[in-house]
Amino acid sequence: MPIQVLISDPLSEDGIYPLQQATNIQIEVATGLNEDALLEKIKDFDALIVRSQTQVTRKVIEAAEKLKMIGRAGVGVDNIDLEAATEHGIIVVNAPDGNTNSAAEHTIAMLTALARKIPQAFNALKNGIWDRKTFIGVELKNKTLGIIGLGRIGAEVAARAKGQRMNVIAYDPFLTKEKAQKMGIDFGTVDDVIRAADFITVHTPLLKETKHLLNKEAFAAMKDGVQIINCARGGIIDEEALYDAIVSGKVAGAALDVFETEPFLDHKLLTLPQVIATPHLGASTVEAQESVAIDVSNDIVAFFNGDPVRNPVNLPSVSKDVLSKIEPFFDLSEKLGVFLSRMTNEAVEEINIKYAGELANYDVRALTRNTVKGILKRNLGSHVNDVNAKFMADRFGVKVNEHKTTTAKGFLHLITVELLTATTTHRVAGTLLNGLGARIVKVDDYVVDIVPEGHLLYIEHKDQPGAIGKVGTLLAMENINIATMQVGRSAAGGDAIMMLTVDNVVQPEEIERLIALEDIFAVKAIDL
Ligand SMILES: NC(=O)C1=CN([C@@H]2O[C@H](COP(=O)(O)OP(=O)(O)OC[C@H]3O[C@@H](n4cnc5c(N)ncnc54)[C@H](O)[C@@H]3O)[C@@H](O)[C@H]2O)C=CC1
Ligand SMILES: O=C(O)C(=O)COP(=O)(O)O
C-alpha cells in the first residue's frame, strides 16, 4: 500500500515533484476543506501538507488515525497543534528558509507603498480621480526603521532598509551589541525601538510574549506620525488599539499582511484611508512557494525512507535504552531551563549543564536539549523543541557545554545548569528525591528546597529586619496567597534571596510594586 499524502492548501505544482517522483507515495490534493470535511478525510492519510489556512487542531490530529507526519510549507506552525501532534507521535516539519526572501521583499514593498501612499493613489486613479495633492508621501531616506524580531526575515529587512539609506534600530532577545555592530544597525530594548522609530515593523512569531506587543501603551510611547508594518503574524499588533491610534492621528499609517482573524474582511481597519493591506501574501511568490514545497516534500520522502529529516519541529530522537534511564529527568531538566531563562533579560551567550552522580553514566544529550529548549522557549516559543534546541542555540551563537562527574555531593543525581550573559551568571541545580519527586536544591549560591511547580517568585533583597514582612504585606494586599517561602543569605545583613510559591499568577504591575519596596533589588515571576 503506497504512503498516502494529503495536500490541503494550495502548493506549488513544481515544488512537489520529489513526492511525484517517489514510487511509494500517492498524493491527493483537496484544498478549502472545512473542519468536518477534514476530520472525515484525514483518516486515510499518512502525511498531511499544509500552509497557513488549514487549521490542524487537536480534533483533526485525534481523528487522523494513520497520520505520521505533518509538513508545513512555510515558517509559522501556529495553525498546527504541536502538542497534540507530539503527543500522538506525529512528526511536524516546516520549511523555515524557503520564504525568508519573499517575506522580506514583501515587507519592503509594504513599507514603500505605505510611505508613498501608492495603493490609495492607484485606487483613486482607478476611480477616475487625478489627485496629486492628497497623496503626498514621505521619504524613507534618513528615517529610522524600528525592527522588533531580528530573525531570518527581520535581518533581511534590516539589510534592505539600509539600502534605502534608512537608520535601523532593532530589538531581539538574541541580538547583542557585537552582532548589531556587524550588521551596521543600532540595538535597544523594545521601548528604545518604539520611541526612536519613524516606521516600525514586527518580525517575531506569535507567542504569549509577543501577543499584542504593540498595544495601546506602546502606541502612546511612539513618535507622532509613526507608521506600522506587520508582515509577520496577526495578533502581534492589537488591532483595536491600532484603529484608535490611527483615528486619533498618533499613527499616520499602517501596512498589514496578516490579521488576528483570517480571512480579514469587513473590518473597521479596512475603512481607514491610512491603512493598506494584502491578504497574507508575504510568502506568495513563485520562488518561495516552489522552495517551501520542495523542502517539505524532500522531508516527507526522507522520513518515509527512514532517513533523517532536515527541518523537524517536534521530532523526539532518544533510543529506548537511554530513554528508560533519563526519562524521569525530562520534566526537571526543562524546568531548570525555564527557571533560569526568567532570571535575566539579557542575551544568553553560554549554557553549561553539569550532570553529577549516576546520570553521568548515561547519554544525556536528550536532557541537554530539553534544558536548552526550556531556556530558549521564552523567546522562541514553539519554534524551539527538543529536536531543534541545539540547532537554535547554534543559530543564535549560544554555546552549550555538557559536563559530567560521577560525584554528586550527597545526591544520587544532580543537574546543575549555568547561564551566562555578557554581564551576569546564574545557576540553578535540581535533583529527583527518591519517592518525593523533583526538587530545585540550589539557586545561584543559595541552598533551597523547592518543588519546581506552579507560580514561583524569586526575590533578591537585603538581609534586613522587615524585608520579608514588607513582601508578605504587599502580596496580601494584592490578594496573593503565599503557599511556601524560603530565604537564604550570603551573610547577616548582606545579599539575600526569597523564594516563594504563590497560588496565583503574579501580574507585571504587582512585580513593579514589589520592586519599588525598600531593600528589594530584583523580583522575577517564574511559572513552571
Ligand atoms: N506574511 C507571511 O506570509 C509570512 C510570515 N512569516 C512570519 O514571520 C515571522 C518571522 O519569521 P522568521 O524570521 O522566519 O522567524 P525566525 O525564527 O527566524 O525569527 C523570529 C525572531 O523573533 C525573535 N523574537 C521572539 N520573541 C521576541 C520578542 N518578544 N521580541 C522581539 N523578538 C522576539 C526571535 O528571537 C527570532 O530571532 C513568523 O511569525 C512567521 O510565521 C514568515 C513567512 C511569511
Ligand atoms: O510561512 C509563514 O509563516 C507564512 O505566514 C506564510 O503563510 P502561507 O504559507 O503563505 O499561508
Automatic annotation (TrEMBL):
Residues 456-528 form the ACT domain. Its EC number is 1.1.1.95. It catalyses: (2R)-3-phosphoglycerate + NAD(+) = 3-phosphooxypyruvate + NADH + H(+); (R)-2-hydroxyglutarate + NAD(+) = 2-oxoglutarate + NADH + H(+). Pathway: Amino-acid biosynthesis; L-serine biosynthesis; L-serine from 3-phospho-D-glycerate: step 1/3. Transmembrane segments: none annotated. Signal peptide: none annotated. It comes from the Bacteria. InterPro entries: ACT-like_dom_sf (IPR045865), ACT_dom (IPR002912), ASB_dom_sf (IPR029009), D-2-hydroxyacid_DH (IPR050857), D-isomer_2_OHA_DH_cat_dom (IPR006139), D-isomer_DH_CS (IPR029753), D-isomer_DH_CS1 (IPR029752), D-isomer_DH_NAD-bd (IPR006140). Keywords: Amino-acid biosynthesis, NAD, Oxidoreductase, Serine biosynthesis. GO terms for molecular function: phosphoglycerate dehydrogenase activity. It is an enzyme of class 1 (oxidoreductase). The keyword Cell membrane does not apply. Belongs to the D-isomer specific 2-hydroxyacid dehydrogenase family. Catalyzes the reversible oxidation of 3-phospho-D-glycerate to 3-phosphonooxypyruvate, the first step of the phosphorylated L-serine biosynthesis pathway. Also catalyzes the reversible oxidation of 2-hydroxyglutarate to 2-oxoglutarate. This is D-3-phosphoglycerate dehydrogenase. It comes from Sporosarcina contaminans.
